[in-house]
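job 3f2a | input accepted
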Amino acid sequence: MEVGGGGKHFVLVHGLCHGAWCWYKVATALESAGHRVTALDLAAAGAHPARLHEVRSFEDYSRTLLDAVAAAPDGDRLVLVGHSHGGLSLALAMERFPHKVAAAVFVAAALPCVGKHMGVTTEEFMRRTASKGLLMDCQVVPINDGADTGPGSEAAGGKKGVAIVMGPRFMEEKYYQESPAEDLTLAKMLVRPGNQFLDDPVMKDEALLTAANYGSVKKVFVVAKADESSTEEMQRWMVEMSPGTEVEEIAGADHAVMNSKATELCDVLGRIASRCD
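job 3f2a | predicted structure (277 res):
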């Protein structure tokens, strides 16, 4: 989805299992404030036509973002905004096209750092959630070649990794617990299984993110202080690993910050945009 207008050009990237649809409040508010907005569906997410087993790599998953940044005119420096797992796609785009990104905003998002592989943030999140049982009724299911993925799915095709299927209790109690009931209902209708790509070579490459490229881009982390999924402790752990990252806080924001605190998030994005050259 893209809307016109002046101001800055925001590119909004959703988190795991979600799609461009989750930004509907933020996109509307930013556009009303005179900014341009592009909300993307990553591969096999949202309304993107690919099926999960067809997306062979994290780069393929992130292709819509990489293509959008590559296609931006040189004078149109972007403000990238990533939520949750979408922060890793942001990092890949920042490393490839640092001169096209005025700022990158990580909204309760995976924030990788120079000198470590990108998968370290997801691995740490999974370690913390597993030890505390935070994933509740979420399921981990095989991605089978040529078959639909869902709870209990079995297929004759070869396995292509695993996917997360978000459970309704997890969404209600750990992800959307401060959001309007309508947004939780919408999410339950639209979420799709999501691949974290933990075994992808891009996730394992400790030399992938460089100080000269990824490290040179202005980074802002938005802490969701009522996040029961990626807790405030986890969020601040990531910030500590990336010195120089600016921090904004939103009180009362659950993990679905764009729904629970859309106005406050737009205010933060507006301030960031005003400080960009």
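job 3f2a | The chain has eleven helices and nine strands.
job 3f2a | closed
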